[in-house]
Structures are given as C-alpha cells and as structure tokens.
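Subject: Sanity check before I submit

Could someone independently write out the structure tokens for this chain? I want to compare against mine line by line before I put it in a report. The sequence has 66 residues.
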Amino acid sequence: MSAWGTVPDFLISLMWAASGAAVAWYVGLTLVDITYVTLADGRRAERRLPLLYRLLLPFTPNFSGL
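---
Independent answer below. Compare away.
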C-alpha cells in the first residue's frame, strides 16, 4: 500500500475521533447542567429535565416554523 493511500484514511479517522470527542464533550456538559425554574410563589427550585430533552433542546428553534 502506498503512503498516499494511508493519509486520507488517517485524516478520516482523525475527523471521526474529533467529532466523537465533540459529541462526548457536549453530552458531558449537558449532564452537569442544572436547570432552575421559578415557582408560582416566586421561589426558585432545581428541576432537572430528562437527558434526551436536554440534548435536543438546542435544536428546538429550528422546528418552530413546522
């Protein structure tokens, strides 16, 4: 196998690793995120959303027109 054939394979593997690390970083930051809500009497209480909702929350403005 020539050296030119392994360079694109290496770059593709490097890009997959970088995207996997970015997804893991995002999930990690989402897991430690604490959400507060304001109750009817003005107090603030900690309410944790389910993980799937917290992961999909940044995409909600994209679906507002549907």
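---
OP: Matches mine. For the report I'm noting this point. The helical segments are 3-31, 51-56.
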